[in-house]
Amino acid sequence: MNTLKALIVLGIVCAGLQYWNQHDAAVDLAAATDDNGFVDLSPMDGDDSDTVYVVAGLTCPQEDAQRADRLAEQLRGRGIPVVRTDTITVTSALVDRYHAVSNGTSPLVLVGGRVKSNATLDQVVAELKMLQE
User: Fold this and answer.
1) Can you give the residue range of the structural domain that contains 6?
2) Are residues 62 and 23 in the same domain?
3) What is the pTM of this model?
4) Helix or strand holding residue 39 (H, E)
5) Separation CA 112–CA 132 (nearest Å)
6) Is the dihedral of CA 90, 52, 29, 12 positive or negative?
7) What is the average pLDDT across 78-86?
């Protein structure tokens, strides 16, 4: 009986720790998110701060790839430099934050060291304007 009680208490403690860790990650992510919904990711190697990077895998669901292609074309139509790619590299220090964002809907959109999952054209333009101010 004592073993059962100890296992129950251990399970409750483990569940509490898991909840606390997830809560801390959510608070960290919320604190790093700006008014347009972009999260600070810090510029990556070779990242041009004036260029928008639209990232979605070539083998991702067709709807996601089409949404990425459409956003890249809309940005080009507005004269905004854009790179449509299927790969990016992030520093090890920012991997957790990147994974928290990248688990959303494709495409990922990177603007001046900030990233957002499934950003709209208006959100990207607003982010660019904010960075230029």
Assistant:
1) 1-31
2) no
3) 0.64
4) strand 39-40
5) 10
6) negative
7) 91
